[in-house]
Write a structure and sequence with these properties.
About 35% of the residues lie in helices and about 15% in strands. It is of the alpha/beta class. The protein has two domains: about 150 residues, Rossmann fold; about 150 residues, Rossmann fold (3-Layer(aba) Sandwich). A five-stranded parallel β-sheet has the order 9-8-7-10-11. A four-stranded parallel β-sheet has the order 2-1-5-6, sandwiched between helices. Bound molecules: phosphoric acid mono(formamide)ester (CP).
């Protein structure tokens, strides 16, 4: 593995999940000599889980970790090739990525979608991967959140009762327009793991075809929930009407009565979550809610990937 941008960088998902199990059981065990290596976590956007879990993962590996809030502490970066830099952007990513790559053995970057036309070109991550000599890890880009999806798989693997559980990714309401990154990665990773994936959403919220793949699509949320083993709630804005909110129907909130249609399903969400908008208190506070364990597994996914890339 030379970088961790997407599931395409993982040639052996089963093996990766085995490595995650070992990391989870023995978080402080060190094999190989990665002590004294260094990681830089670059944030262009806010975070709670990604920031703290990545830092903890690095600390568990006894590698040095630096957090750099590019938005508030660095120069504004230019990402366009050939730009005439006579406005507010003081530094081009070509130099910034090259320089940071000489200071650290690995850099990890968060750069959300701006919900603009160019998002699916993944300009920020692709420019860093092109110009940085050190391996690059995706901490959520415009279209993907692979460390989240990897943690979600670690969580499902721990609770699944059958080889091919029925997993439902359901759209849920939200007051703001959100990117598709979490839903996109969850769809790709759960299908790669061989789960039976249904994606439930109102019409107009279809994911881009390269992300929905062979998942079943269901416009009737109650029907989708029938016999589900895992319910994963997430809001995303429309892909076809890019970045728009097409539906505000509160009936799509995950509620106790809908959970009763499932096969005693576990409830999942990547967090942060809007209570009583995306999911009712009763569901997220129930014994079947895995949201905190999912977040805890973010340390496991980050540590497993950092370990691979630094070894
Ligand atoms: N799930 C997730 O990435 O959380 P943060 O945005 O808080 O990092």
């Amino acid at each position: 593995m030379k970088q961790f941008f997407s599931i395409d960088d993982v040639s052996d998902l089963k093996q990766l999940l085995e490595e995650a199990k070992v990391v989870k059981e023995n978080p402080f065990e060190l094999k190989g000599n990665i002590r004294n290596k260094s990681i830089c976590l670059l944030f262009l956007n806010p975070s709670l889980r990604t920031r703290l879990s990545s830092q903890r993962a690095a600390q568990n590996l006894r590698v040095n970790v630096t957090i750099f809030d590019v938005g508030s502490g660095g120069w504004q970066l230019e990402f366009t090739d050939g730009a005439i830099m006579n406005s507010d952007k003081a530094e081009h990513v070509k130099e910034a990525a090259a320089v940071i790559g000489t200071y650290f053995d690995l850099i990890a970057i968060r750069a959300f979608a701006k919900l603009e036309d160019k998002d699916y070109q993944e300009q920020v991550l692709s420019q860093f991967m092109k110009h940085c000599p050190a391996p690059v890890v995706n901490l959520e880009s415009s279209t993907r959140h692979p460390l989240q999806a990897f943690a979600d798989l670690v969580t499902i693997e721990a609770y699944k009762k059958t080889k091919k559980p029925k997993v439902v990714l359901t759209w849920a309401p939200h007051p703001r327009a959100l990117p598709q990154a979490v839903a996109n990665s969850f769809s790709l990773w759960t299908q790669a793991a061989g789960y039976d994936l249904t994606i439930a959403h109102p019409e107009g919220y279809e994911l881009a075809p390269e992300f929905s793949g062979n998942a079943k699509v269901e416009y009737d949320q109650r029907k989708a929930f029938e016999e589900a083993d895992f319910i994963y709630a997430k809001n995303w804005s429309s892909y076809s009407n890019y970045g728009e909110i097409l539906c505000k129907d509160s009936n799509w909130m995950v509620s106790e009565d809908k959970m009763k249609l499932t096969n005693n399903a576990k409830f999942m969400h990547c967090l942060p979550v809007r209570r009583n908008v995306v999911v009712s208190d009763a569901v997220i506070d129930s014994k079947d809610s895995l949201v905190v364990e999912q977040a805890e597994n973010r340390i496991v996914s980050a540590q497993t990937i950092f370990k691979r890339l630094l070894s």
